[in-house]
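User: Can you fold this complex?
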Amino acid sequence: MEKQQLVNELKNKIIEQLNLVDIDPATVNANDPLFGEGLGLDSIDGLEIVVILERDYNITITEIESLTPHFESLTTLAEFVAAQTAVTA
Amino acid sequence: MATYCSIQPNSIKHNDECIFAVRPEERENFFLDAYRHFGLAYPKFHKMDRFCQLGFLTALPIVPAAGKYDPAKTGLLIASKSGSYFTDNHYFSRVFAEEKINYSPAQFTYTLPSAVLGELSIQHNFQGENYLFLQSEYNFDLLRDYAKSLFHDQKLDTCLIGWMDYYGPDQFLSTFLWIDRSDLINLDTIILNINKTCFDYGKATVS
Amino acid sequence: MRSSYITAAEIVSPLGIGLTANFEQVKNGASALRVHQSKAARTEIFCSRINEAQEQQYDAILATEERLTKLEKMTLVTAKRLIDSTNFKPEDSRSLFILCTTKGNIDLLFQPESTIPENRILFSESAGFMARQLKFKNLPIVVSNACISGVEGILLGRQLIAAGVYDKALVVAADLVTDFTISGFYSLKAYAKGRCRPFDQDRTGVNLGECCAGVILNHEADKDTDMKIIAGISSNDANHMTAPSREAKGLTQAINHCLQTVGEDKAPDFISAHGTGTRYNDAMESKAFGQSGLETVPFFSLKGIYGHTLGAAGLVETVISIAALRDNLLLPSVGFQKAGEDVQQQPITQLKWSPMRRFLKTASGFGGGNACLMVEKIRA
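Assistant: Here's the predicted assembly.
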């Protein structure tokens, strides 16, 4: 899958799973921070993203702490997903 | 100075004055519209379940601004009959619908009736005694007795007490009261009036 | 303020029925934690559960035609033991029934074929049903504040007795292990791999447990009464829905209140900690002990024995701690091997006799709540 396509797919899944009602997908940029500022997600939202990764991409997460660099933005997340799914393909 | 807020489907009252209402045909968006009406930018609101959103909205008009109360001496006492009944069912039907478990850690945190204590404490910085009671009959007597006792013990100087139920989109009610020490002398009268005004409480039940 | 004496204490658990039987097991180093396969967790987990044979024992004890949920059986057996061991009269207008639970009869959701009336899934309806079975005249109160429920139930009874609203309270706390709660803790990545290890450097989370415990509180002591509640309070971190405040602000505030209430010459001889085995709780609790000047007070967690019994935990652990205080025994913190850098003191590792007068019980939970109470032995 094209990276941009994966970024958009992840964006929509996150907005839906996390019920981000007041967020317009068009205003969310691929390089915006996911946590703290930007989308302003917190640690529980992070666990919801883990559910998406495990359920929709068959990625098994064993160490939550190792995810921090991959969760910086949609871009880094898409790169992580692409790398993990390429490994299992 | 005692002040109260009451919510039932489609309207919000603050000290007997209606401050927000939607027409019956618009009631599907009541919570979202009420949130927008108050003009608050609090994205976490959308993550809450309806029970917490109900508590959140009921407290909003009556809790004073930060600095007007001592967080460590502010209590939060809420009673309910429904508790997290609706959210528990929602979680169950979402997570266990299929053979494969469909996890939702965010939703799980709301399958506790006391989640509303957490949300209100975070929003208003309530650090004092906090309780969630489940009772089968609507009245504020326990809340009155317990609050009084905590005031006398010098554990509290201010307190938010309230009753709330959420059974479904058309079946919810809440009444919250904010009191401080000066209200203790009149508290019995205030509570008598509140007990009378919402007499339909507690009759809603599991169908 | 009118006092609250503890005139009875009981527990019904996977280790057995009754406080005597349970405490024997605890002294012998038993743990109720067993391997369990649940579809709500991808790997096998440890938890502590009451099995079918034990449930049948409860049926035999209760000998009733009424259909009861598992939680109701556990609660009624505990309540009856409490009532039978004292002169407590449920029908008295000055007697109150308090139930503490986080999920009540949540197993009913998994039993669509159950013939138990659907409204008993409401905590207040189940409590009302049980109150009538026990012959209470007053409407019961259910306390549900996550993992601090068990302690708060005692605080509620104590406060209402002090205020003169009631003279006696029967406080019972119970919770089940179900796929409902397993799914939640597992998805929060808070369920331990293997057995839970409170305060240990390699701890990875909780093991859930099901249990029921209860006490009778009375404004008067009788000739056998040896325990009294001398302080207690709850607080809130006002910080995060599932994680405790890193600075341990709320729990420190609550502990300090208790210590100030009893005065310097009544420091606790041990702390019955919450010690769930999660990274956050145990680090926070350890910090709170240090910040309130209790860094040299011996402490233990009982969750390596009973698991995390959620709403019941505070009461289960208070009851076992009462037995320990009575026998002057410091209990080992099962599951602990080595302290990590984030835990400032080491819990007790060996059963040890030590003459003692009082203990502090601490609890913290989802929603930011903290609660503690202090129990004093008033006669040897």
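Chain A has a mean pLDDT of 88. Residues 3-88 of chain A form a domain with the Non-ribosomal Peptide Synthetase Peptidyl Carrier Protein; Chain A fold (CATH 1.10.1200.10).
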